[in-house]
Structure formats: structure tokens, C-alpha cells
Amino acid sequence: MKVTQEKLENSRIGLQIEVTGDQTTKYYEQAIKNLTTKANIPGFRKGKIPRQVVLQRMGQSQVKAMALEALLEPAINEAIKQEAVPAIGNYQITSNFDELLEQFVPGQNLTFGATVDVPPSVTLGDYKGLAIKAEEILYDPAQVDDFIDGQRREKATVIPVVGRAAQLDDIAVVDYSGKLADGTEISGAQADDFDIELSEGKFIGDLVNGIVGMSVGETRNVNVVFPADYPREDLAAQPALFNVVLKDLKEQELPALDDDFAKEASDFDTLTEYRESIVTRFQEQAQKSTDQNITNALETALIDVVEADLPETAIERETMNILNQMANQFSQYGMDVNKLFTRETIPKMKENCRTDAISNLKQQLAIAEIAKQEGITVTDEAIVAKMSEILPQLAGEDIDENRLRSYITEDLQKEQTLAWLKDHAKVELVPEGSLKPADEDVEIEAGEAEAIDILAEAVTE
Questions:
Q1: Residue pLDDT, tens place only, 201-254
Q2: What phi, psi does 43 have (nearest 5°)?
Q3: Rounded CA gap, 426 and 129, in Å?
Q4: What is the pTM of this model?
Q5: Hey, what domains does the chain have and what are their CATH numbers?
Q6: Residues 56, 36: contact at Cβ < 8 Å?
């Protein structure tokens, strides 16, 4: 087989493949054989049809078409193997089939064209000493007090309130009913013996504030404006009037903040040890969040230092990966994925995710090329250790350990390469919330939002 290669744009290789006369004869004869054994022709038993009858009834053009269709795929695969072309994805035949059919003569050579996608060549800019900004997440000591306060509330004892009116942090037992400003009763806004915790964020704010100051047995009309982000859109930002009867009042008696509480709430013997453990936890969380912001900034910066002529096959594959992740996420939310991902919605969603896919591929290629240039490799010991950590979590599932090993190797190499980049980067930490998304990030987020809007439309339809 004679094969000529040509480098094309978008990481494609053009192939001119010349098939020998022996091969054209082989596939032509095979087509006739298949027809003589499988065709249904009146007056002849299946499998006993003479060759000449097949040619006469089917026509030589149809036989040649069958032979040509059977020949093309194995010829391309043989050419790729012969030339050691690192093909990815499916091939594409560039020659016109009807013209090939006219040129097809059993016993004579046949030349046709095809293209295949190949891994892109990667050109890196200056990746050493990347200058990035990342938001620093600082540990807030108030988090510790809030956490401990929450633990105390979980272990609190509820006792009756005697001799005073309702106040914040009480538990009010009420009957209530609500009407809109025009007097229309609000469906679902009626309850008897309902417990309301008089705390911020626990119920409708205006109603909580209206109950504060009431005495047991008192009835009060409370003016309420539903929050603008209220889950029921028909009530959001709407004024209403609630009739409330305070039937009982309770309060939480918090446990003493001492060593006994620490022993009950944790594995520590003293309150000091318990508090120190919580401080350490929040400090570690803050540092982990800061490190993740640095990693995200590095990955974003890599997009600008890599040039690669990405093949459509790779972009399509990464786009589908993103959509699969979206599908899994929506499924976890309890949404019917089959209704969301339809023939009508998927094309637009793919279009919206394309920018993300290209960015992801550039980051992957940059990390792989940097690892190659800097000699960053993963040891067998690290791979085995990670597999030993993951495999027990996948017990009972059908796992391809070779694929898992490949995934783990790639993931560990990414971690090590990003750590190397961080060590060599110029990192400026800035206050939390001070960085505005770059224009590109805004476009990506807008694209994702549009994809979700498409899904929302699919649900309502």
C-alpha cells in the first residue's frame, strides 16, 4: 500500500492512500460472494444463486458500491498502522464516493483521500515565574465562636418561658394564617401549633420581628413583606397580613461552656483542647482555600502561555465530558436528565461549553508539556499508594485498573507540575473578594448560565 501524508491545520493529517489491484479484486469478489449467499431472488434458492444472475439482477454498480464501502475502512486503518500515524478520533474520507465508484475497477489500483486528527504540537511561552494574583482567605476567629455556639444549641435543653414576653432566640408555638394585601388567602400559609425559632434566617423576617414582644395568649396582626428571593415566585416581594396567636413560649437552655461540654461534644478532655482543635481546623480550611485560589490562578494563566492547534475531535470529546459532568450534577439534584438533555437542547449547550472545553484542553496540554520539559515524573510508589487509597472506596464496582492507574498517574503529575509552577511563580495575595473576573471568565460563566437557562426551558416545556 502506498501512502502519502500531508500536514493540515487543526492538527489533522491528510492521507492519500493507494490500494493495490489485488485488494480491489478481493473486495469485489467478496461482495459477489455475499450476495450469492444472502440475496433473495425469486426462482433461486438462497445461497445457490449463480454469479451471473447476481450481476444481472443487482447490477455491477451496486456490487462495486458494496465492495468500495467494505474496502475503505480497513484500508484507512492499515494506512494509519503502516505510517504509524498517532490518530485520535474518527477518520474522514475526503474523496467523493460517486467519483471513487466510477474509478473503481477490480484488479486495478485505487487512490482515495482521507484525514485523521492527531495530537496537537504544543508551543510554550514563558511559564517560569508566572505573575499571578490570588485572593487570600483569612481565618476569622469569629468562626470558632459561631461553631461552638452552634454545638451548644444542638445540645441545648428546651424549657418553658415564664413571666416575660417573646424575645429573639425563643421558640414560639403559634397558630397563624396569612392573606395578601387584597384579602386573598395564601395557600399553604396556615398552621396550628407551629414552632417558630425567633432567629434571623429561620423564618420570614417580618413575621419573626412581629412575634417578638408578644405574650402567651395574645393575638396580633403582623404586616409582612415576603423577601424578593422567596422560593415561591408568586409571593416574592409581595405584602401580606398574618394573624398570629402565641400559644406557648419556650427557650433553649444552653449547656455550660466548660470541660464537661467539651467531652460531650468532642474527643477532647478540656475546653481549651477542644477550642484549639477548632481553631486549627478553620486555619487549615482557610489555607486550603487560599492554595486552591493560587492553583486556579495558575491554571488560568497557563492558557495564555500555550499555543496549540486543537483538533476538533479533542474539542468535541472535552465538550462531551463537560456535559456529562453537568448531567451527573443535575441528576444529583433529582432532575430528570432525559428531559433536560434532548436533541433540541444539546447542540446549544455544546456551543456554550466550547470555550470551557478549549480552555481545559490548553491547560492540560500546557501542564503535560511543562512536566515533560522539567522532567517531572510520578514514582511507582506514589501511584501504588494512591491506588491503595482509592480502590477500597470502589469495592464492588467493575473497575478497569489499567485505566484507573493511568488516571491516577495523570492526576498526580498534574499536582506535582502545579506545585512546581507555584514554587517558581510570583504570587501576589490580595484581599478576599477584591478580584473581578476577567472578561474571558465572564463569558464562560455566561455560557454556562445560558446552558442552564436552556435546561430550564426544557423543563417547563
A1: 788 999 999 999 999 999 999 999 999 988 888 899 999 999 999 999 999 999
A2: 95, -5
A3: 6
A4: 0.70
A5: 2-118 (3.30.70.1050), 157-253 (3.10.50.40), 265-375+425-460 (no CATH)
A6: no
